[in-house]
Amino acid sequence: MSTTTDTRSIPVAQACGVTKRYGVTAALNDVGICVMPGESHALVGRNGAGKSTLVSILTGLTKPDSGDVQFGGMPAPPLSDRDAWRERVACVYQHSTIIRDLSVAENLFINRQPQRRSVIDWRAMRRDARALLEHWKIDVNENARAGDLTVEARQLVEIARALSYGARFIILDEPTAQLDGDEIKRLFRRIEELQREGVTFLFISHHLQEIYEVCQAVTVLRDARHIVSAPVCALPRAQLIEAMTGESGGLAVADAAAREPLPADAATALEVVDLGGADYTGVSFAVKRGEVVGLTGATSSGRTSVAEAIAGLRAHERGDIRVGAASLPRGDVCAALGYGIGCVPKDRHHEGLVLTQSVAENASMTIMRALGRFGIASPARKNAFGAKMIDALDIKAAQGPMHVVSGLSGGNQQKVVMARALATDPKVLVLIDPTAGVDVKSKQALLSVVDGVREEGKAVLVASSELDDLRTCDRVLVMFRGHVEAEFRAGWQDHELIAAMEGVNSDEK
Fold first, then answer.
1. Sequence-ordered alpha helix ranges (H) in 249-378
2. Residues 6+ away with beta carbon under 8 Å from 268
3. CB-count burial class (<10 Å; 0-12, 13-18, 19+) for 247
4. How far apart are CA 414 and CA 426, in angstroms?
5. Bridge partners, residue 221, by sequence
6. In terms of C-beta density within 10 A (0-12 exposed, 13-18 middle, 19 or more buried), how is residue 500 classed?
7. Closest by alpha carbon to 41, among 182, 199, 186, 161?
């Protein structure tokens, strides 16, 4: 009888009984996961469920208090042996670790450049980089400056770098967060190709549909505990959401199709006239008081640039933006605030928050003059306002308004950004990808704000490609290659809207 072990039955990576505490807080409590060779295994859960801590343990950045980690049936190396960890596992994070001012080749072989007579052998490094990229069928020039690459290309370079160390287990952290539809399709095809070549993935995403498209197995964490691991095909969407939230039913979002129509004489709150910029032109539309209008399209469609121009985050080149009778100056956030425009920007980490400051300081940032003379507000007033917004938006902050926002989950950070946008009691609320990178319950809470703001008679512009975000809209304008190409009233069909976003006529066979 053969004693040969079938390596396909040995997990590529396995964590058993892993517990990690920070003070009295349990980040993980007896958690396990088993990732089999050649699969894409999804890791899902609400913000704060323990996903980041588990990834930190699986990549050797954090030592668990108890439990063990194995790779290929063997114990994980000591944390101090970084080379051994790189040979086993790598993580491609949502925020790239690529050094933008270096070339692709330099990034691939950073800190391990081939040398000749104690100096870097540039020719050999470029040759090795070319061979590596060709071997893994990654169409990127080894001499290109990394900062000039697309987000998609930078991700593939990071994957190639991980594979060059010998790792065949890659963790992808929100890999599609900054990609548009075509880029996502190409990434998924590449993942499938790499799987066939023996690479295994742990796939982390808040986009549940992606899990059903690309993954074969899924593990759900909730409140620092392991809830379920199962084949994706055995866990329908409603059950998956229930496992993540502990509540039955799907995402409860107010669908605009069920609303009473706006009065015919509703006043116009925002008017955009023949707006043009670097990646859009001839954009015109109006939003009435009490109306929610969606602006959608691929990442390259220009939708984000238009929304940022309205909020003063980006200067438009021509055309006019009007709030009431006033025309807004170009690229002036303070002026936009003064005319009654509040904004949740696309990137909360770089545009929405000061991570080292508290909930109260971030939430009150736009109303300092109202809270104190000469723009100097007392801590008591700021904290009182912060506490008010914590209650209004159900922000989970253990230390209350004094809680530093870097210590909050992604969903709660986004609620703080929303609190700041609402602080000025705006006439027009501009939301740019408002639920990106947040869990199901946080998404539901953020979108419920839209309905509340609309009921107050304010105008809302939602610039997003997320269908759940757009269901809150009375109308959805679809941009394609810088132009508004279509308009859909509430009640649209998913396939029709998606086809318009991708520039496809859904009636064509």
1. 303-310, 333-338, 359-363, 368-371
2. 286, 287, 288, 289
3. exposed
4. 18
5. 226
6. buried
7. 199
Closest CA to 70 of 61, 57, 81: 57
pLDDT at 374: 54
What residue ranges define each of the domains in the chain, with the CATH number in brackets? Answer: 7-98+149-245 (3.40.50.300), 252-340+459-509 (3.40.50.300)
User: Rounded to the nearest 10 degrees, how much is the dihedral formed by the CA atoms of 27, 29, 30, 31?
Assistant: -50
DSSP string spanning 80-138?
T-HHHHHTT-EEE-SS----TTSBHHHHHTTT---EETTEE-HHHHHHHHHHHHHHTT-
Q: How far apart are CA 304 and CA 109, in angstroms?
A: 35
Euclidean distance between CA atoms 170 and 166, whole angstroms: 11
**Cα–chain-centroid distance for residue 53?**
18
Residue 63 C-beta-side C-alpha neighbours within 13 Å: 6
Q: What are the per-10-residue average pLDDT scores of the chain (509 residues)?
A: 59 95 87 94 85 94 94 94 92 84 92 86 92 88 91 88 89 82 83 91 86 94 92 90 72 75 90 94 95 89 94 94 92 92 87 86 78 67 87 87 87 90 92 84 85 91 90 93 93 84 57
**Residue where the block lists tokens 């757009």:** 470
Separation of alpha carbons 381 and 374, rounded Å: 14
How far apart (Å, rounded) are the C-alpha atoms in residues 202 and 469?
27
**Contact in structure between 348 and 386 (CB atoms under 8 Å):** no
The secondary element (H helix, E strand) that includes residue 164 is helix 151-164
Closest CA to 228 of 33, 19, 15: 33
- Predicted confidence at residue 179, as pLDDT, reads 76
Write down the residue that tokens 């004489």 correspond to: 265
CA distance linking residue 280 with residue 351, whole number of Å: 22
The reply to whether the predicted model has a pTM over 0.70 is no
Tokens 């590596």 — which residue?
A: 132
Q: Give every CB contact of residue 363 below 8 A, 6+ residues apart in sequence.
A: 385, 386, 389, 401, 416, 419, 420, 423
CA 123 – CA 186 distance, rounded (Å): 31
What confidence score (pLDDT) does residue 45 get? 85
The CA-atom distances, in angstroms, between 481 and each of 278, 281, 320, 471, 478 are 11, 9, 20, 23, 10
pLDDT at residue 36, rounded to an integer = 95
Is the distance from CB of 228 to CB of 243 less than 8 angstroms? yes
Alpha-carbon distance of 35 to 12, in angstroms, equals: 6
Rg of the chain over Cα atoms, rounded to whole angstroms, equals 24
* Distance from the first to the final alpha carbon of the chain: 57
Round to whole Å and give the CA distance between 502 and 155. 22
How far is 450 from 369, CA to CA, in rounded Å? Answer: 26
Model pLDDT, residue 1: 42
Helix (DSSP H) and strand (DSSP E) numbers for the chain: 17, 22
Distance between CA atoms of residues 364 and 386, nearest Å: 7
